[in-house]
Amino acid sequence: MNSVNPKIAIVGSGAIGSYYGCRLANTGADVRFLLRSDLDAVRSSGRMRVQLPQSEIVVAAPQVYGTPEEIGPCDLVIIALKTTANGVFDKLIRPLLKEGTLLLTLQNGLGSDEQLAELFGAERVLGGLCFICVNRTAPGEILCIEPGAVAFGEFGRPISERLRAVVALFERAGVKCSASDNLAELRWKKLVWNVPFNGLAIAAGGITTDKILASPELENQVRALMAEVIEAAAKFGYVIPPAFIEKQISSTRPMGPYRPSSLIDYLDGREVEVESIWGEPLRRAKKAGAAVPRLEMLYALLKRLTMRSQ
Amino acid sequence: MNSVNPKIAIVGSGAIGSYYGCRLANTGADVRFLLRSDLDAVRSSGRMRVQLPQSEIVVAAPQVYGTPEEIGPCDLVIIALKTTANGVFDKLIRPLLKEGTLLLTLQNGLGSDEQLAELFGAERVLGGLCFICVNRTAPGEILCIEPGAVAFGEFGRPISERLRAVVALFERAGVKCSASDNLAELRWKKLVWNVPFNGLAIAAGGITTDKILASPELENQVRALMAEVIEAAAKFGYVIPPAFIEKQISSTRPMGPYRPSSLIDYLDGREVEVESIWGEPLRRAKKAGAAVPRLEMLYALLKRLTMRSQ
């Protein structure tokens, strides 16, 4: 990240990857998109487009590629794959590496940081948690309903100069950013919301967050699941105050008939990130001796409900 | 039950009620069926029929009625309504009472004994737990796949002479019977199976018991839910040995793709007995101080999944 104009690869050009990639490209950054199913369509349209609540960003002639070899070594690789695709890390990322290449994962849940560290070296890994509402509506077409913010952190290290440089890059692209000395704590904190709402939305029959909160019994399960996640996080020294629970519930209420990302995946018949959002947190919680009976049952139900061939 | 040929009413002539009613009528007992939607069809066909695994019972010209007033006071009232219909107890049962009328509920779960006792006097109430696989395939047509057995008990009292008389009546009708000094313990014991299997069959997406046991995670939840029910029962002094869990699981495995009764109701769009199988046990367990987090979550999910208008 010492380059004046760093070469950036976007691996996983779904909604999240395309959105940040387009915003960065829009500021003149050298952004290379790795595409798969959308490659031909974007090549022939010759553009990618982000619709924002009040404006739009059009990237004319985006640099799109079908293989990481064509992109070659980069300064920064932004990873926005679904965690269900983490098995392709080695194949897709290795060709993008050189000395000092940074890997920024914008993926959900737990596990990606460690998998990237294991494969490519812990010293390369940064993480960003996206609080955003964005959908891919067609190849190269991204609809952003709520731009939200990104919380950045180093993997297992405090904020560094290079992290600040990445944050500055995103800020120049108009993204609201924050940085934390504790990426893992950020991840657990995000799970406090994702575990109950993403999970119960599926397990209770494919319902939006307002319907979850309209049931006193399910609202109690939201609280109880949040308390389990907080208890598990505490076992690792991440202290999330219990008042966080009420704050999360009261900020969810005005969201109305909101469809958590996992529910959208589920209803559209796409893979759900069951392992990174429920499986890995469950395994870590149990290993650390936390009592997480509801998380365990929710995971068992979700694993079965999202099975590909029944 | 002192009569030589007691007058028996069947309230709730679905699969269970019709099955035992026909078996009793087949031995010459004076059985009066209270019908609703099937009344005209059975009147015009002039028969009710039970298909057994190796034979069939045909009751020609069954005594069928549309109102309890037409039946009038009975010696024994056999109640086989869905527990979701318990709100009609007073209307349907009061006209069938005289001094000494016995009320035998063959209903599932917890709560019916107490509701009958509250309305009509605890001294009238007997219970029977049906371990049977039986379906109503058309008006007056009953298909019995597995005749199983009935376990009888007095409500809150040890085995009595009159209970023995009821058991004898069923035995003469070819029903395998047992009697217990502890009806409530029998009910909790039956819940050890019903709570996990009926519940997870619905919550895991409408799956049969073999699919539940094919998932190691769900099988673990079966065990954990069974342990919660056993813990709750223990709070009331009903001691169910932990070995009962393995016995239940290993007897379920050879049942193959079995659809628990609640799953059949759910898939057919009929009301599910959520309160008697999960709600009432949950409320009693919590009141008694048992830790039942999984039962609580399962109840919350089932209550929402079986909501009539979503």
| Number of separate helices of chain A | 13
Strand fraction of chain A equals 15-25%
- As for the number of domains of chain A, it is 2
- What is the molecular shape of chain A? globular
- Return the CATH topology of the largest domain in chain A: Rossmann fold
- Any guess at the CATH architecture of the largest domain in chain A? 3-Layer(aba) Sandwich
By CATH, the superfamily of the largest domain in chain A comes out as NAD(P)-binding Rossmann-like Domain
Multimerization state: homodimer
Number of strands of chain A: 10
Largest interface: A-B, 24 and 24 residues
Low-confidence spans of chain A: none
Helix-strand pattern of chain A: EHEHEEEHEHEHEEHEHHHHHHH
Instruction: Determine the mean pLDDT of chain A.
Output: 96
The biggest sheet of chain A amounts to: 10 strands, mixed
Tell me the distance between the termini of chain A: 47 Å
Helix content of chain A: 40-55%
Structural descriptors:
homodimer; 310 residues; alpha/beta; Rossmann fold; N-(1-d-carboxylethyl)-l-norvaline Dehydrogenase, domain 2; 2 domains
